[in-house]
Fold this protein.
Amino acid sequence: MQSRSRQELQELVREQLQVLLEQENFQGAKALLVPVQFADITEAIEGLPEAMQAIAFRLLSKEEAIEVFEYPDPSVQQTLVEDFKRQDVQYIVDRMSPDDRARLFDELPAKVVRRLLQQLSPLERDATALLLGYTPNTAGRIMTPEYLSLKENVTVAQALEQIRSLANLRETIYYMYVIDDASRLTGILSLRDLIVAQPDQTIGSIMTREVVFVNTNTDQEEVARTIQHYDFMAIPVVDTEQRLVGIVTVDDVLDILEQETTEDIHALGGLESGGDNYFQTNLFTVARKRVVWLLILLVTNSATAAVITNQEDILEKVVALTAFIPLLIDTGGNVGAQSSTVVIRGLNTEEVRPKEALGIVKREAIAGILLGTMLGIVVVIWAFFLQGNWLVAIAVGISLFSICILASVSGSALPFLFRSLGLDPALMSAPFITTAVDVLGVLIYLNIARWILSFS
Amino acid sequence: MQSRSRQELQELVREQLQVLLEQENFQGAKALLVPVQFADITEAIEGLPEAMQAIAFRLLSKEEAIEVFEYPDPSVQQTLVEDFKRQDVQYIVDRMSPDDRARLFDELPAKVVRRLLQQLSPLERDATALLLGYTPNTAGRIMTPEYLSLKENVTVAQALEQIRSLANLRETIYYMYVIDDASRLTGILSLRDLIVAQPDQTIGSIMTREVVFVNTNTDQEEVARTIQHYDFMAIPVVDTEQRLVGIVTVDDVLDILEQETTEDIHALGGLESGGDNYFQTNLFTVARKRVVWLLILLVTNSATAAVITNQEDILEKVVALTAFIPLLIDTGGNVGAQSSTVVIRGLNTEEVRPKEALGIVKREAIAGILLGTMLGIVVVIWAFFLQGNWLVAIAVGISLFSICILASVSGSALPFLFRSLGLDPALMSAPFITTAVDVLGVLIYLNIARWILSFS
């Protein structure tokens, strides 16, 4: 009777599970699975429609997931791998809110991650990343499972033999990662170390125990910078329990840094960069992405238009003043761009630390005074030469001097401000610098002109 | 008598050589050395004052240089290495014109280069680079001599033994370079190949003969891109005779790409970047470097001032028009910056080829039409709301539409033009785009306004 009641129980769990999943009550499904024996879970999952198997699997706790995945019947594993590739599964997961997903999906066990990654092509891996639970642009998304791992008690000769047999299956054989029985990363070893060691030494006695590693959720740019900083050829990726789940190699890092730099440069140029290739994107998408930015700048520019409208009386009196408005705001914009470019690039390459902000803004302010003095003198002569009015020329010169300081200070300070607010300095700085320079610049100019011309 | 007359000859050569070098008649010194026996050259060079030894050595032909450098007395080699580090020697070489230097200095033999590089620290290497004859930012300047080279007839077991003994002295042991008796590069081998091969196989039978290499004068950015393209960990550097002289490793490439990118970004921001750190440079140097750029832009902006001065009559009649000048030129500048940023970054990463110019300019022109339409409509409403004058609002809208197209076409076309003229698109594009947008933009605006207002 035992076997019958057990079958009944399995059937009951499977039915309830299917109903809950169909209702998209994932919380309920997860709760249902908690007290059930893992063998029964396996049976229940096997009985589900295919599209639901992978989701039910992902709702399991870490301990249950490995038991189910490693279930004696190898077809279970294969079925699950196939399920991970399924489009409709990804569609369901995609529709969950990100925090729901994080709450429902436990981290997958290291062993399962490695098996899944090995059986999925890089393209499939990317597509199933949501199911794996790694967010985009993190180490978890760019790591490869093709590393060599060893146990500490293996000898150098045995390790070399193992490498010989696996060399063609691994992305890099130049670093070996040493793990304990629970897959936890305990050491690292280069092929160089192995080559120069005696054949009967154990790996544990020659490995390096201070391993630099990153976590699955480390940002890819930080992964790249770490590899760059240490001149590594690869870096190990561990999960929250220190279990080795993959490695990131230096050749991927080159591509990541290039992609990140393109995004930085596009942001500086006022382009929202989605990582996709601009030259292959639909033109309407391109226009739509660019227009948002231009509309923001149009609105900020309207403030300048309002200021000028407000000050029309002085322009009506001395139309000659109008001629220098483009020169003043363009030069201010250029000075601001120079300061902000240096600071933004410095922040992105970590050459500049946020705590150095005050010193750098001071420095840029002095640079602004120097530039303003030189340009101011040149422009006074130039403006007089163009219009023959000394008072207008002097008003232009003093305004340019003030605008240079304003521009270099806002150009260097705003990126720090946006960084401290958690915003991308490259994307945020330009409209604010433009507004500051244009609105305040025109205000400064017209008021200085009003004051100086009052002496005529 | 033979020995006396020989000593006399040596003395004569030494004296003449010294006189010619003191007169800085390097051409003459080189001619003097051509018919002399190498043993006599060695003696003559040894007799020279220290500061002249290295220069006399560099004037020798390739064949003579190796004979002198490999002269039986090891002190000669050591003296020459010391000479290469001397500041006054570098000062003299620095003062020669670059083409004089190229004509006078033969390429150094591969063996000599390697010995010199091995005995000079990276810092010294950089300082003596002029003497070595490699121009800055080329493979010759960034290569390291710390590679492993093998002969074809060596067995795998012998090679492994050799690697074991040298592993700690070489920067990378993961690639081995196979050379013939004349130091010419004939093949490449990875440690992986070696590990999986049978101990008694010869290197020649397992090596790869299709080697990707660069020349000493290959630009460092191209070296970096080649390594990136092939996912290499290192690339061999050969001289004009295919002799292996060094390798460039991937960790150096990461730094080069970062440095080149910083230069590109600084150029886009209107900063002349000398490869030095902006935050450690003297403020006056910073201001001097920036002001050149700003003065160029000031001059181009003066053209806008002249155009406005020329069209003052219409502005006098309708002062309201002035309010929209900043908005029009700023938006034009932004649209131009978006187009040029995409093209410049594309050219720098080689994602865009110069021959694709026409297609991309067309694409950007259409993007300009789309953007101009959207922004034009918005601005008409906005301008009317601001000033309540339909005619002015319509003039602003039509102008903005035209300026968007002008900006996207010049923004995408100018980088291609400058690239085809051999100029840096990142540095050259901004002032020309600004001028085009400002001067033509204001002209378009004021003339459209004149025409439209003529209906009132």
Summary: The mean pLDDT of chain B is 83.
